[in-house]
Amino acid sequence: MKQLRSKRILTAVILFTLAVIWGHSLLGREASSEESSFVMDLLTPLLEVVVGKGNVTEHLVRKLAHFCEFFVYGIELQLFFALSKSRKNAFLLALSHGLFTALVDETIQIFSGRGPMIQDVWLDFSGVAVGALITLAATALKKDKKP
Fold first, then answer.
1. CA 80 to CA 143: how far, in whole Å?
2. Could you tell me the residue ranges of all domains in the chain?
3. What does residue 43 show for φ and ψ, rounded to 5 degrees?
4. The whole model's pTM is what?
5. Of 5, 10, 135, 144, whose CB count within 10 A is highest?
């Protein structure tokens, strides 16, 4: 019963994440640029610590957003599939769903007046893979520590 409740919660969280990801892709070029500029203004002091003063660009913020959205999505997918009957294949299922989502994401951008970019599919997929892999490792370590 607890597992079913967890799967339902994860389903809702995954659907919300998809709405955020695909919602951003539906934005037109101008609206997307305004949003990126706003986020860039917020994150510049933090990012400059990592990339150096004056090196934070809208391009960097956009690419970080791609990676971070899909990183979170990868965590969610890995947790969801780890609770399913096919948990042995959870990592591969998370990767395949993440890749499909990335392809749909870039396809949506065709219709919103923004060009799709294959490098963004790879970046999105990398975010899913890293998120799922970290989650897989963390859950494996947690299982090893149980008495």
1. 17
2. 2-145
3. -90, -15
4. 0.89
5. 135
